[in-house]
Amino acid sequence: MDKLSDYAKGLAKTSLEGAISYSDKIKGLNLDPYTLTDADLDFEVEAIPPISNMDIVIYLVLTNSYYTEKQMKAYKSLTPYKYFEAGFVEKVGVKQVNGYMLLVGKVQPPVQHSMHGREPELHVWIITERDGGICTAHCTCMTKLGEVCNHIAAVLYAVEHVTNLKNSTSCITDIKSTWPVPFQSGLQPVPIRLMDWGPKKSPSIKVDVKPMTNDEMCSLLRKIQDCGYESALMRIVEPFASEIANSSKKTNNLQ
Fold it and tell me: pTM, whole model, 2 decimals?
């Protein structure tokens, strides 16, 4: 393997057993998925492998015993499905490698307490067969050697959702060509001094307007005057201020 990610190098320093397990997972690809960038991935809906609910059951229940069969029958009440519904799964990219389908995505961990800032994104990759069969997976949240966590399961549910959309439409153009899954980007922590504590306002468009020159101001006021109207500005802008003052004097003298 030509290149290892910083994550894989860190495993080698902290857990030899973990590093060996990770190496075994990716040996069929002959590359470390965490070295890939967005430019290496295909985010089109058509690229998503056809992962079905049965594929997920086989992987989560029969292969890893992560859930019981009874739990999976009510999978929509499970934490991973709630992660998916809440939009914590970001768009998933796909790459074909050595006959396998590699899915790479990110999951926003939910804030556990209102006083806590948003934690860093968790990076998930999943290796599948072309027909949707799930081979193995990994997430940066893992502290043990298991192959399943809530974040991996959430990504699987999101991909299953895309598969169902593709199967339920007569034409692929009937759905978005890019990730048609609920998604929230998450709030990043910012210093208190940068927070806006004022009332919410509707978005407004700010336009830079150059201040009027004296000649432009006089021209505008003259047009107002010609229409038979007055402006408060005329009392402080010359020559209108002098004209008003002289007019007032004449009126007083007549009285």
Answer: 0.66
User: DSSP letters along the chain, please?
Assistant: -----HHHHHHHHH-HHHHHHHHHHHTTTTS-GGG--GGGSB--GGGS----HHHHHIIIIIIT-SS-HHHHHTGGGSHHHHHHHTT-BPP-EEEEETTEEEEEEEEPPPPSSTTSPPPPPEEEEEEE-TTS-EEEEEETT--SS-S--HHHHHHHHHHHHHHHHHHHSSSGGGS-SS--S-----PPP--GGG---SPP---------PPPPHHHHHHHHHHHHHTT---GGGGTSTTHHHHHHHHHHHHHHH-
> Are 129 and 242 contained in the same domain?
no
- Pair (19, 92) in one structural domain: yes
Query: Please, what are the averages of pLDDT over each run of 10 residues along the chain (255 residues)?
Result: 84 84 89 94 91 91 80 78 87 92 89 58 93 92 70 92 80 55 58 70 67 89 89 88 81 62
Asked if 219 and 189 sit in the same domain, the reply is no
